[in-house]
Amino acid sequence: MDALVSELFGSGSGHFSGSQGTASNHKPGNGNGVISKKASSKNKKAKARFSRNFKLSNNTPNLPPEAEEGNIEYKLKLINPTQNRFEHLATQMKWRLQEGRGEAVYQIGVEDNGMLVGLSEEDMRASLNTLHRLAEKVGADIAVLREQEVDYDSDVPRKIAEVLLRKVPDDQQFLDLRVAVLGNVDSGKSTLLGVLTQGELDNGRGRARLNLFRHLHEIQTGRTSSISFEILGFNSKGEIVNYSESRTAEEICESASKMITFIDLAGHHKYLKTTIFGLTSYCPDFAMLVVSANTGIAGTTREHLGLAMALKVPIFIVISKVDLCTRATVERTVRQLERVLKQPGCNKVPMVVSSTDDAVTAAQQFAQSPNITPIFTLSSVTGESLDLLKVFFNIIPPLSNSKEQEELMQQLTEFQVDEIYTVPEVGTVVGGTLYSGICREGDHLVVGPTESGQFQKLTIGSIQRNRSACRVLRAGQAATLALGNFDRSLLRKGMVMVSPEMDPTICWMFEAEIVLLFHAKTFHKGFQVTVHIGNVRQTATVEAVYGKEELRTGEKAVVLFKFIKHPEYLKVGAKVLFREGLTKGIGHVTMLHPIAQASGGFCC
């Protein structure tokens, strides 16, 4: 494991290290860190699927050749197509939209081999008109992201255009991306989310964050201690849909084609277990690390960055509170972050966003390479550069394509239980994420495991996504399910609701290949740690360390863990993160020790 990852987790004290890598030696895809190596195969898939680098400058005369798969389409021109040609183009557009799960990007004025030819003003207008007609036919809207002139052997000025297509929402089937919000306490996380989702700037004293808090003590202290969810929508034309103009959550869902769900996590070190649970359980697509411009890298900032890197969650950075600082202070904070990101173990390529064009490029490069780390500098009070972050959220594509989504939906139903509520006149309600399959109202599932390793039968009542009713839940979507009069005492966080046909593997003990990121002394048999595996969070005892008597910081080994309270449902290959005080480590499950079948099974 790289020294930097260990250093990022460190003792949680957040002291900034002056060591730095050489900027010229760090480019996307040539890293020598463990995380970069493991992510390389994922990078190749993403490059084939999603947006390419679209830097339109004289130094970049061509784009990469068009790929058959993915949501990118090159068109030299679209002028007065015949009826047959029009139908073919419409079918092609449906395919691209399906590949991008409701989003596609068209490059107009570009040949299939990537050559930037460009079009005259008249031809460009005619091509965009044809594209608009095609979009209407397939039920989508278009928005021109940017136009730029190109150098081509012609007396007439020629330009190319990049156009975003997005399906008009249909029966709550909007594109949903989850963004975990990380950062040190008092860095402005909740205030930023309040400004984005409410549509009103902050007054400098925390007014914008009040709607996000769930408990009285959070309002009194101004510090988040629990996990809260906020939504920001974009309609098919790329316009923001939020709580401004007295909209309700249901109205936002109805008019949004794309939804960003923010998972607001705690910044204070004493709530670290809640933050880890939010990262491991809610499966965020991206992480937004908020850093205060006036304090820089402080407190839990480094630890949160290390967590996101260890769990391989793509991360971008927002520097807030720039209204409180001089430009020199902001630039010092940016340089401080760049030094950390360029260190060999981190191997990130920071990209400071200062214009709309930068925001579009950052969104596309961020999706194709996890090494790219966009950095925004903004203010929640003055609104400075806030629009750039909104453009970024509007354009950023999902990491998984339609094929992967369909494969997950073909599997048996598996719903992870993250939250449990009792709602008056509704009964027991559970919140969580559908890991695989499809879930409908009235479905019969089983939930468990109980302390004896059994599963209880139940029936799904109603389903809600983003606080509005929903009839069908698909793999990868988060929702709350009403279970009627099912006994709440039989439920706990970390359980799963699965199809009765599934044969879930329940175990007290499991083996994991781990790397000890930080430990003050030695890690040995008998040591107790809190283990996080997906939505499972439980204390476990180290039963054996194979091949070694003990482990020290930075060492790797296969370890046998045993849960101390109740058995859990686990899968081989699942990511493991464990902690105890200053002790921290990561790894993955290599083998399960299932409990005897006689004690498992279903019960009424």
The proportion of strand residues reads: 25-35%
| Rg from alpha-carbon coordinates | 25 Å
Average pLDDT number = 83
Tally the beta strands: 32
Largest beta-sheet details = 9 strands, mixed
Uncertain regions: pLDDT < 50 for 5+ in a row? Answer: 9-60
GO molecular function, one term: GTP binding
InterPro entries: EF-Tu_GTPase, EFTu-like_2, GTPBP1-like, P-loop_NTPase, T_Tr_GTP-bd_dom, Transl_B-barrel_sf, Transl_elong_EF1A/Init_IF2_C
Region (Disordered): 14-45
Protein name: GTP binding protein 2
Textual characterization of the structure:
The chain is an alpha+beta fold and 604 residues long. Helix content is 25%, strand content 32%. The chain contains 13 helices and 32 strands. Strands 19-18-21-14-13-22-16-17-32 form a nine-stranded mixed β-sheet. Helix 1 (3-9) packs across helix 9 (301-310) and helix 11 (356-368) runs parallel beside helix 12. The radius of gyration is 25 Å and the shape is globular. The two termini are 47 Å apart. Residues 9-60 have low confidence and may be disordered.
